[in-house]
Amino acid sequence: MKRCQGCGALLQIEDKTKSGYVRSLEMDLCERCFRIRHYNDLTIDMRRAIDNKEILNKVRTTSGTIVLIIDILAIEATFTEDLIETLKGRSVIVIFNKLDILPYNTDIDRYIDYLKETVSSRLKEVRIIDVILAHKYDKGFKDVFMDVIKGSAIKELVFIGYYNAGKSTIINRLLERDLVVTSYFPSTTLDFNEIDLGDIKLIDTPGLIYEYHLAQDVSKEELKKIEIAKTIKPKVYQFYSKQTYLIDDLCYISLYPKADKASVIFYLSERLEILRIKSENLDPYLQRHDLRLRNADIQEYDLEDKDAEFVVCGLGVIATKGAKSLKIATAYKTTIYKRKCVF
Asked: Is the pLDDT of residue 187 over 70?
């Protein structure tokens, strides 16, 4: 059976509403991939169609070297127990992707050290062949990657990672052509997709699904807004009393200063709007504008006089300095990770 070169789905001519539909079985791209590539239009939303356990079970049946692609803003959410169990005893090449989105003032060495420490602490029973840093402006990426596997007996590379980590983009860079379809829509790749790179077989796999992630629930229009596609320009606010910051109708953060002055820094998509209001005016504002955040999922934190960063899955990073406590609310149930300041 022939598969779509873009997403790996089996091609079929019976049902337009299902994945893999083509008008003719002689076509190489399914209708869905064709419209994503040429019109950036998602005709079939497959965000709920991916089964992590099924994908990882299939990965376990492969014998090749694993290439684990990690979105640098999602490393905390990457290492689930199922993924760690799948990688045990395997040889793995780790690629930290999207370094180009880091703010210009980021201490790169400190951030990369944090990434590597996280990998080594979570993948203790894995043979790490190498760790590669990737960004879209690096024209020498293929040479670096091929140097890693040169002289080895590697004949099969299995690319895995969570959706939008950039697996398909990395494969296209190795192929030096846009064969695999890429987009900001989650779950663009739908099935295992085998591609030849010389005498090495590359296997692209569907992006794993985060358990609680904003991209799972927002609209297609909001997906575009929350995508961080360019270098992040941090937005810094100082506050002297209880303040709340609304990020569109997706999230708000209420902060309580521990001293006369504190600050909050947002590392988000430039398309998102931030509105600052007094915390006591929050509920009336939400009611008056009938926002989803009226029924938000709220998580509260006591900072114990320590600065911290909060990774809001699917949204970005929020850093606080001088805050005594805070609460973060999201329109949909979303995993939030608290970490030390690494930006």
From this structure: no
DSSP track, 104-162: TT--HHHHHHHHHHHHHHH-TTSEEEEEEE--TT-TTHHHHHHHHHTTS---EEEEE-B
**165-171: average pLDDT:** 87
- What are 127-140's pLDDT values in tens digits? 999 999 998 888 88
Q: What is this structure's pTM?
A: 0.87
Q: Give me the phi and psi of 161, to 5 degrees please.
A: 160, 175
Angle between helices 167-175 and 141-149 (to 10 degrees): 90
Q: Are 187 and 55 in contact (CB under 8 A)?
A: no
Q: H or E element: which one contains 291?
A: none
Residues composing the chain: 343
- CA nearest 79: which of 198, 199, 166, 162? 162
Highest mean pLDDT among 12-16, 179-183, 189-193, 332-336 belongs to: 332-336
If one counts every other C-beta atom within 10 angstroms of the C-beta of residue 304, the result is 9
Strand-strand pairing, 316-321 and 274-278 = unpaired
